[in-house]
Amino acid sequence: MTPSLKASSRPVLIPPNPPQFAHRRHGLLHYQSRLDLRFAALSDGTRRGILERLGKTDASISDLAAKFAMTLTGMKKHVQILEEAGLVTTEKLGRVRTCKLGPHQLGDETAWMNKYRRMLEARLDSLGDFLARTKGDQP
Description:
The protein is built from 5 helices and 3 strands, in the order H-H-E-H-H-E-E-H. By secondary structure, it is mainly α. It is elongated and about 75 Å long.
């Protein structure tokens, strides 16, 4: 008997690509992995286009697939990624699955980008100060 299995239990199967945030327990790591998930969802132009389209009005997956000249299966995959990131919600009524913008407002992502921008600006300011001080020190 292997040490990880009890005599009467079945092995626990871990999905091949579990969402990172489901396995993190500390607040910062949890926050970081959700941030990664949302940036990954936003990294695709089609998914950004879907968000822009849903910003105007709700749409069915069929409508979105037609707008982006894509198969229903392909559009479902894009919508699922957006839904897992909290950027889109879906509701099925009969045979039609309607998509709308999700409750997440990208506040964490905006805060991270602003923090990164401030860091880069500070480094560029330091470089500018250094260049101004050493302007006449050419060999």
